[in-house]
Amino acid sequence: MKVKRLLGRYTQEQDGPLFVGMGGIHGNEHAGILAFNRVFEHLEKTNPPFKGEFVGVAGNLPAIEQKRRFIDTDLNRQWTDEKISFINAETRRNLKSSEALQQKELLILFNRILQTSNYHPMVLLDMHTTSAKGGVPFSIANNTELSKSLATNLGAPAILGVDKIISGTTLNYFTKLGMCAFGFEAGQHDNPQSVDRMEAALWLTLEKLGCLDVSEIPNYSEHRNLLHELCKEIPGLVEFTYRHAIHEGVNFVMKPGFKNFQPIVKGQVLAEDNSGPILAEQDGMILMPLYQKQGEDGFFVIRPVNEEVEIS
Ligand SMILES: [Zn+2]
After folding, report:
1. Cα(47) to centroid of ligand 1, in Å?
2. CA distance 149 to 145
3. What's the gap in Å between 287 CA and the centre of ligand 1?
4. In a structure prediction context, what are the per-residue pLDDT tens digits for the chain, which is 312 residues long?
């Protein structure tokens, strides 16, 4: 799939939020991009009243074209202060990896958007899909109230604490810029339902932010039910407790059949690599078990957030 960096832009120049969505920061995850096409097509056709501005951005263009997670390195792990200053300081010609060039273009675009936009608050939604089958969708929130409320508004479980276990994600970066950032994982990469769920996530967020009136959203209640119905059995708020990092050359292989939110118990065999079986270190639920070749995260463990702790 060949796409332009700017997937779409819609505003009526009325006060309101700036809502930036990004799809395809992992190039094999096309669902977000397809969902933007649907939403922008509808907005352009019906031209509804709109508060603020809505912008859709494509992440890793060469990887999207080749339908690979990345070309040289994972673009969603490069957003640390060090990497960003390096990329900002270098000329394009000196940037050797494909992702470094992509990141430079994205940084220039984001800076331009942030500096010229008159809209508040500024919100970023980063859209992903996973390799595991039977995926229940979920969202990832950072620690601001708006991020948590937008993430839980989607009806899928919201996961907190990503910054404690992965560094260099776009969520970390935008949080540091003072923006509200949240992520959405819609399901398996090539499941057509993942596109429907992404589309639902965009409409629900546009409504929650006050950009669009419900009456202007096509099939609003279907979008709402699509996500809410899927996640009835799963706790609404969970947090990351563990990430299994994969080091080069260890031949990590996940045991087959794990699904997102599947309960696991301490001592259970989850995967294996050159050093033998990999056991669960604690009880919890498994998230994003790796069933594709590219990736630095073998799996994550999550647990429900104790609401009392959450409030204090
Ligand atoms: Zn992804």
Report:
1. 31
2. 6
3. 13
4. 999 999 999 999 999 999 999 999 999 999 999 999 999 999 999 999 999 999 999 999 999 999 999 999 999 999 999 999 999 999 999 999 999 999 999 999 999 998 999 999 999 999 999 887 766 899 999 878 899 899 999 988 899 988 888 888 998 898 888 789 999 999 999 999 999 999 999 999 999 999 999 999 999 999 999 888 777 778 888 999 999 999 988 999 999 999 888 999 999 999 999 999 999 999 999 998 999 888 889 999 999 886 544 433
Q: How many Å lie between the centroid of ligand 1 and the Cα of residue 78?
A: 13
Residue-range domains of the chain with CATH: 6-230 (3.40.630.10), 241-311 (2.40.50.100)
Residue 133 Cα, ligand 1 centroid: separation in angstroms? 15
Stated pTM of the model? 0.89
CA 260 – ligand 1 centroid, Å: 14
DSSP 131-185: SSTTPPPEEEE-SSHHHHHHHHHTSS-EEE-HHHH--S-HHHHHHHTT-EEEEEE
Q: Tell me how far apart the alpha carbons of residues 119 and 139 are, in angstroms, rounded to a whole number.
A: 24
213 C-alpha to ligand 1 centroid (Å): 30
Q: How far is CA 89 from CA 81, 86, 102, 104, in A?
A: 12, 5, 15, 10
